[in-house]
Design a protein that fits this description.
Radius of gyration: 21 Å
Shape: globular
Helix content: 25-40%
Number of helices: 9
Order of helices and strands: EHEHEEEHEEHEHEEHHHEEEEHE
Distance between the termini: 45 Å
Structural class: alpha+beta
Oligomer: single chain
């Protein structure tokens, strides 16, 4: 393995290192982005486009440097060429077969020791193709995945992508803007619950024998009549969070489970002018269920969270990553702490919204009419909701751990979420 004396390297940022610790065979820490195209892509042309993007974008071909288990932290390195071809191809004839192909493809996060840290599946159907991106969350957040897919699409249709800056000597981590307070959250950064309020857990429901099952299930939900604005002046994102809190409350009430519902909301902290940077620039804030639960009350919390620059992570997590112990030892400590204290400290669920894509990635004459996005939801959360809007239609992907819900329960929860959206907005929500 080439070392940092002959290859540009960058230390893992705190969130990169934690994303590595959270990854496991049972809970792959990956980001999923999917485009449904009304036609068929040319496989050879797609492979050529991916190869060109990898050649032009050093961060797209990052890998974790292998430097000995005793080192206290990890480093990125950017090889001159990728170690593996990230493109895979499969076929499907029915929606069930496509769902099965998606599940298989996302079962494992791409290995960080092999460049590049993403994989791309071309799932060719009878009348349309589905292009599915699987990226390790230590290397990419949702917006990076969207940027990567856009670069591939631009190259596929013959449009030259702007050259990427050289890989940095250190991982660029945005710092708070001058005069802005850092790290303000409605719930403290270390995840300590609001005094007297223990965060609720989503009530588990699964058939016998699946409690210890590995991996995730996925439920797709379309919202063709998404409103342009929300009741009371809130955003669509505020509606999505409000509905998620309501759906969890109703789900838990049926099982006699209580506690304060808290939803994690990732915020993009890329500085102005760096919106196209690849990497993991998501920082987390928390929205606690207000009483009474209204879109306006949720909007007040999300607006406050977005108005402040956020730290990379909570102080407890940040301190742990700096402890001079071997990284594998710190990983075990993080996972043990999550198992022992996670139920009392972690938020109930997570919602991530990539927003409205005015110009979705276009592969020549093929422009996606629907896209889907999701991010991991390790236990004890066990469930996340990813949102993305294309051509005025909002698509939601509910990702759930099999240790929390089986497929039947996942579909039932998703239907309850659709009911909550309908009750708030008066607009119909349809399957897929």
């Amino acid at each position: 393995m080439t070392d940092c004396q002959t290859m540009r390297c960058a230390k893992f940022a705190i969130q990169d290192e934690l994303a590595t610790y959270f990854d496991s065979p049972a809970e792959p820490n990956n980001v999923h982005l999917e485009a449904w195209l009304p036609g068929h892509l040319d496989e050879k042309r797609l492979r050529s486009a991916v190869a060109s993007v990898l050649a032009d974008q050093p961060k797209a071909r990052a890998r974790r440097a292998a430097r000995g288990w005793w080192r206290s932290g990890y480093e990125w390195e950017f090889p001159e060429r990728p170690d593996a071809d990230p493109v895979q191809v499969t076929g499907w004839r029915t929606e069930v077969e496509l769902d099965e192909a998606r599940d298989r493809f996302l079962t494992v996060a791409p290995p960080l020791l092999v460049s590049p840290p993403f994989r791309l599946l071309l799932a060719a159907g009878p009348d349309r193709d589905s292009l599915i991106l699987n990226a390790h969350h230590a290397a990419f957040d949702g917006r990076s995945c969207l940027r990567l897919l856009r670069l591939i699409a631009d190259t596929y249709r013959g449009r030259a992508a702007p050259p990427a800056p050289p890989a940095p000597p250190q991982t660029a981590v945005p710092s708070p803007a001058a005069g802005q307070p850092a790290g303000q959250r409605l719930v403290p950064d270390d995840g300590v619950p609001v005094p007297g309020a223990r965060p609720a857990r989503i009530a588990p429901r699964h058939v016998a024998g699946t409690r210890n099952a590995r991996g995730y299930g996925y439920a797709l939900l379309g919202w063709p009549s998404v409103p342009s604005s929300a009741p009371g002046g809130g955003t669509v994102n505020d509606v999505l969070i409000t509905a998620l809190i309501r759906a969890i409350a109703q789900w838990n009430a049926a099982s006699g489970q209580h506690g304060q519902i808290r939803v994690t909301m990732p915020v993009d902290v890329r500085p102005p002018g760096h919106e196209g940077d690849l990497g993991n620039f998501s920082r987390l804030c928390t929205v606690a269920a207000p009483g009474p639960l209204t879109v306006e009350a949720v909007a007040a919390q999300t607006a406050l969270a977005k108005s402040h620059a956020l730290r990379d992570s909570g102080p407890a997590q940040a301190s742990l990553t700096r402890v001079p112990l071997p990284a594998p030892v710190k990983r075990l400590a993080v996972r043990l702490a999550l198992r022992v204290f996670g139920g009392r400290r972690c938020d109930t669920s997570l919602l991530s919204n990539l927003g409205n894509l005015a110009q979705p990635p276009s592969f020549g004459a093929l422009s996606p009419d629907r896209m889907w996005f999701s991010t991991s939801a390790h236990m004890p959360r066990g469930l996340s909701v990813g949102a993305i809007t294309v051509a005025g239609r909002l698509q939601l992907c509910v990702r759930y751990r099999y240790a929390l819900l089986d497929d039947e329960a996942g579909a039932e929860f998703t239907a309850g979420y659709a009911d909550a959206l309908r009750a708030i907005t008066g607009r119909e929500v349809a399957d897929r």
